[in-house]
Structure formats: C-alpha cells, structure tokens
Amino acid sequence: MTSPNRHGIGRERVMLMGDDRVFYLGLLGAPSVRNFGSLTVYAALDRPFRICLDGRRWVSRELAVVPPYRRHSIETDDQMIGAIMLEPDSVDFGRLPDALSPGGQPWGDAGVLARIHRAYAYLQTIGVGATVEGLDGDQLFWGGPLVRPDLDPRIAAVVDTIRRNPTGHYTAEQSAEEAGLSFSRFLHLFKEEVGVTFRKFRAWKRARTLLYYVNRRTTLLDVALEVGYPDSTHFSHSIRQYYGLRPKEIFAGSRRLSILVQEAQRVRAA
Questions:
Q1: N or C: which end of the chain has fewer CB within 10 A?
Q2: Residues 118 and 172 in one domain
Q3: Cα angle value 119/125/126 (rounded, 5°)
Q4: Is the domain of 136 the same as that of 158?
Q5: 21 contacts 41 by C-beta, under 8 angstroms
Q6: Structural contact between residues 63 and 41, judged by C-beta atoms closer than 8 angstroms
Q7: In a domain, 4, yes or no
Q8: What is the CATH number of the domain that holds 232?
Q9: Alpha helices, DSSP H only, in 69-197?
Q10: What is the pTM of this model?
Q11: Are residues 113 and 143 in the same domain?
C-alpha cells in the first residue's frame, strides 16, 4: 500500500457497487460533459476539484452534489476523485440529509467530507482479494440508511424488474401491461413517480451496468453485447453520452481498480 495522504487515503483504487449505490475511488481522467442518471456526490481527496454545472461558470469545491440527469463537467489536479452515485429510485429526495440534498451546500459540512474520507480509507484496506459479509455502504459513508421512496406499487414493480435485470429489453408497452395500466397512463405515472421518463430510466440502468465490467480482460464488443447493446457503435455513443469518456478510456483507467460487488448482504471482490 502506498503512503496515505493527510486524510489517510492511499493511491489504491477501489469501487464498492450494488444495485442502488456506487462508491468509487479512482482515476477521473479527462471527461467531457457528463450526464449521470444518478444523484452524484463528488469528494476531493486532497486538493479541491473544479466543477461546472451550468456550462459557463467553474467553481472550486471539496464536496459537491449533482442532481440526476444534470449535465456537468469536472476537473481535478489530484488525478483521483471520490464519486458516489445514488440511484434516485432508491432514495426519498424529500428526506435526504442536508449534505446530500442537491439544493443544499455540502461543501460547508467538513464532518461529512471527513466521514467520506474515512470510509474510502477503510475500503482500501479490503479492496484486493477480500470477501466481506454484511458491509453496509450507507452506514459506512453516512452513518445510517437513506430513506427509500414510497413509490406506487405498480411502478415499484416495474422499477424492481429493471433494477434486477438492467440489460433486459423491456418495452413500455410490456411494462404498462404488467402494471395493469393503459400505455399513456403508465408513461405519465412512471415519470411522476420516478422523476424521469421510462425510456431515460431504462437507458441509464443499462449504461450503468458497464461499471461491473470495467476491469475485466475482454473485448469491448463482448461487453457491449453482454450489457445489451446491439453493437459497439451504439455502446460507445451511449457510454460517452453518460460518462463523458469512451468505453476504451474507461477500461484503460480501470486496470488497477478493485471492484467489490454488493449483492443483498454479501460483498465479493471482482
């Protein structure tokens, strides 16, 4: 392990990932505009990063919260960044802690940043070749669980189906039928409950699946097909639209990334 910085964080790259959460500590690269479908929390590791949320004005921050589907750009002189992605269908936005609220001012809460630093430092100690039972990411990073939204049961069932198999090819017509709703009523209710259109939701869940594969030694075409894209061209275009990087750039920057995949109460090293 390399010598840690003043926050106890070394240079080891690690990502804890599950259906609803991603806790990433690794290279940022030089992305163009990003547009994640998650609520994203960025944490500086040593020096402040620079972030632009409106396409014009850059600000310097140690901690920043970006709402889902908000186009943004980010730069850092540290090379590495902490990025925490919370799926919006898994959190009640009205009951988020102030530090995680998109409308709040998280950069003013040094305690939250210090806890994030401690959590990342802990992940680095288990990030290679380990299997951990019962690791709770929310408890580790926030001190307790985040409140889940109370979705309409019919929409919640559709969301859960896509969450469990994000590479599946679900049509809005099929989902409306399974929900027992007319097509138009389903589309309206889905957006009202989830905060985004069915099409956008499904597309983001598929693109997010890429993160499970980024440190595997396989061809981009194999990954594209396994994730559910018809070919490498569609795959590359979609991934760059969300991540601001081409798939090959993401794979190149993830060669030394240790991935912990969380399934229910089980975490395994990948």
A1: N
A2: no
A3: 95
A4: no
A5: no
A6: yes
A7: no
A8: 1.10.10.60
A9: 110-126, 137-142, 153-164, 172-179, 183-194
A10: 0.92
A11: yes
